[in-house]
Amino acid sequence: MDEIKRPKVGVGVIIKKNGQMLMGKRKNAHGDGTWAPPGGHLEWCESPEECAVRETLEEAGIKIKNVQPWFYTNDIFENGAKHYATLFVIADYDTGEPQVMEPDKCEGWDWFDWHDLPKPLFLTIENLLKTGHNPFE
Predict the structure, then answer these.
(1) pLDDT over 70 for what percent of the chain?
(2) What secondary structure letter does DSSP report for 121?
(3) What does the domain layout of the chain look like in residue ranges?
(4) Mean pLDDT, the chain, whole residue set
(5) How confident is residue 2, by pLDDT bands cut at 50, 70 and 90?
(6) Which parts of the chain are beta strand (E)?
(7) DSSP labels, 72-107
(8) How far is the C-alpha of 7 from the C-alpha of 75, rounded, in Å?
(9) Domain spanning 8-131: which CATH class is it, in words?
(10) Which 3 state secondary structure label does DSSP give 125?
């Protein structure tokens, strides 16, 4: 019998600091070479807000605060090879300096203006931009 395919749930974290957001350059995963905010898979019995705090610390070594649910995107990668519902949250930077905590998954972190994001962008962010929603408004 064929396995039933279901989308996975991802969380994307829009971290705001001084009018900019944190983005990292992905490597060794789908979206290799693209820029994306911190984030990852929602774990069993975890809220999107808890996931955002955990993933941000695991990936970038910083703490965030004021985490709020925001928007979602429906992301179908590589001709249907992967399908995610991405739950975006907005958070404020709290403490720490962004650093590469997972060198096998990220080349580096930097802060960018919402209207001047680096290219190429990860599909989830491309889809988010198409909605016209702006985390800084």
Answers:
(1) 98
(2) B
(3) 8-131
(4) 95
(5) low
(6) 8-17, 20-26, 35-36, 39-41, 63-77, 82-95, 106-113
(7) EEEEEEGGGTEEEEEEEEEEEEEES----S-TTTEE
(8) 9
(9) alpha beta
(10) helix
